[in-house]
Amino acid sequence: MARDDNQLGSFLRSRREKIDAASAGIADNTRRRVKGLRREELALLAGLSPSYYTRIEQGRDRHPSREILEALARVLRLDDVERAHLWSLAMPSLAPADDGTVSAHTVRPGVLHLLERWSDLPAFVVGPSRDVLAGTALAARVNPAWSPGHNLIEFAFLDPRAQTVYPDWDEITLQAVAGLRATAATRRADLDDFVANLRERSETFRALWDSHDVYERVVGEKRLRVDGAGVLRLSFETFALPGPEGHVLYVYFARPGSTDDEALRDLARDAC
Asked: In DSSP terms, which residues pair with 197 in a beta bridge?
């Protein structure tokens, strides 16, 4: 499966296809044969010449100016995450550099110490490609994907257990790919091979990746089916760990006093 070497153009095309022409102020009484805005319509609304915008979308101009990016983001109604993604694709020099001095799979001793102390919480650390690098015993008890040696994305798309563990599997996979794409914009060297491999192995992953949705859920809630405990509703918070490794700490918890909280406490005692 060929890689997308024109990610900027692909992202812009996917966003303009989501904009309703009428809501953007385009009057057109003819039967439209394209989804969303045409190239020339987007160019007009952004104050660009159609030929110049075409060069951007086709990958013949991959570094438009700040002013042009802002104009496109405005017309395409990009949110903050999508806007940041657009900038990272057009200006990759702004992405943080990896000087190679620290192993991407090495979790700091202090973080490991915290995980050892958090015996009553499902918590784990992932790298840019969502490899689980370290975690609490309770995390592995709640979800087999949350244990070291597993990859969250591969589990969701390739492991037959995933649709049982995640009652809301369709939503989980959509969010997972959108978040991975947000990471890929700034850490392409870390993820190019991983993404290419997943595109070949999973048709569902390929379709979601090619939709170019991009956003990050740094907080939220998930339902998980846990052996011996039924379906638990857990909230989560994420913490980006400082450093060039791109590590993120996930911490899950239940609402205090809820049946989910009681079940989580029982699971914690079993996991010790």
From this structure: none
* Calculated CA dihedral for residues 181, 191, 56, 37, nearest 10 degrees: -20
Condensed to tens digits (0 to 9), the pLDDT of residues 152-199 reads 999 999 999 999 999 999 999 999 999 999 998 888 888 989 999 999
Half-sphere exposure of 171 (CA within 13 A, CB side): 10
Q: 7-94 belongs to which homologous superfamily?
A: lambda repressor-like DNA-binding domains (1.10.260.40)
Per CATH, 7-94 and 109-271 having the same topology is answered no
- Separation CA 74–CA 70 (nearest Å): 6
pTM, to two decimals: 0.74
**Paired sense of beta strands 123-126 and 219-226, if any:** unpaired
Nearest Cα to Cα of residue 43 among 72, 85, 10: 72
Amino acid at 252: Y
Three-state DSSP at 192 gives: helix
Q: Where are the domains of the chain?
A: 7-94, 109-271
The number of residues in the chain equals: 272
Is residue 75 within 8 A of residue 26, CB to CB? The reply is: no
Cα of first residue to Cα of last residue in the chain, in angstroms, is 45
Instruction: Give the span between the Cα atoms of 21 and 260, in whole angstroms.
Output: 46
Q: Which residue has the tokens 């390929």?
A: 206
Residues 6+ apart with CB under 8 A from 105: 127, 131, 133
The Cα–Cα gap between 99 and 83 comes to 26
Tally of CB atoms within 10 A around 270: 12
Q: Which residues of the chain have pLDDT under 70?
A: 1-4, 27-32, 92-104, 272
Indicate the class that CATH gives domain 109-271: alpha beta
Amino acid 265 reads: R
